[in-house]
Amino acid sequence: MKQLLTIALTSSILLLSPTRASALYNGFSGQSPTTQGWALSPSPPNGTEIPQSTGVVFDTNGSGSNFGIRDGYSRMGPTLNPDIGFNLRFDLQLLQEARNSNADNNLDGRDDRAGLSILVVSNDRARAIELGFFADRVWAQNDGATKADPVTNPMGTRFTQSQTEFADFTTNTAINRYDLSFLGSTYYLYANGNYTTPLFSGLLRDYRQEAIDFPGPASAVYNTSNFIFIGDNTTSARGSFRLNQVELSPAITPIPFAFNPLFGFGVFGLSRLRKAIAKK
């Protein structure tokens, strides 16, 4: 009996151990993401790419007051299953970011577009999140039945800055490590290894209506499974950023115990097994 309980205990530990992360981009190779499964979007590219020894710098500023460049890195796959849970890690620094007068989509005095965005669409296209990066804030994009537009529909909600899911956080002075975790219908964003408290969290979004209302390559990504985008996806902003690394962990870590009921059950089970073994 003791031997069986010991085997069960070991198996439980293995099941609860973090799954090894896989590199989606390793900038320390001195290569561009395009050599590691990423594509520049749209094609042909409009941004400027500068590979470096520890990553890549990407710039959509163009010349003068040009905000028309919309470009960045995208990839489809591997499978991003929120029911199992997964974590995407980005080592990232915003270098420069600016917006024009069209960035305030709903005319509430807060800009709703950013020169750097991260979009992640899971294998369930109704569960996605887009994050915007300013020099002093990271925030989530709202979804909704209608798209906000400062001229035609300022009452819309889709692609407006969430006023509850954001963090006042310095993004442009150094490389930050962001962990974006999906679990069920919820996302969590952490920074620089602090897994006790996320920068913010919230329900995953359904942006698919954008692809229906405005068909075309730029909006089709919102209805594409297992899709990741890093860059400038708007003509209302521009910027530059440094990307050093992207990793995927197909597991629920680093979501802490407070957010991860599976760990709670596992720890409880392990404690009972230890007690049973000690009595034998």
Would you kindly provide a written description of the structure presented here, covering whatever features stand out?
- It contains four helices and 15 strands.
- Mean pLDDT is 85; it is low at 1-17 and 256-271.
- With 280 residues, the chain is an alpha+beta fold.
- The protein is globular.
- Strands 1, 3, 4, 6, 11, 12, 13 and 15 form an eight-stranded antiparallel beta sheet that branches.
- It has helices at residues 2-16, 208-213, 217-220, 261-279, and strands at 22-26, 39-41, 48-52, 55-59, 71-76, 86-99, 116-121, 128-133, 137-141, 161-168, 176-183, 186-191, 200-203, 227-232, 237-249.
- The protein folds into two domains: 1-18 and 260-280; 21-253, Jelly Rolls (Sandwich), CATH 2.60.120.200.
List the helices and strands and how they pair.
Layout: H1 2-16, E1 22-26, E2 39-41, E3 48-52, E4 55-59, E5 71-76, E6 86-99, E7 116-121, E8 128-133, E9 137-141, E10 161-168, E11 176-183, E12 186-191, E13 200-203, H2 208-213, H3 217-220, E14 227-232, E15 237-249, H4 261-279
Antiparallel strand pairs: 1-15, 2-5, 3-4, 4-15, 5-14, 6-11, 6-15, 7-8, 7-14, 8-9, 9-10, 11-12, 12-13
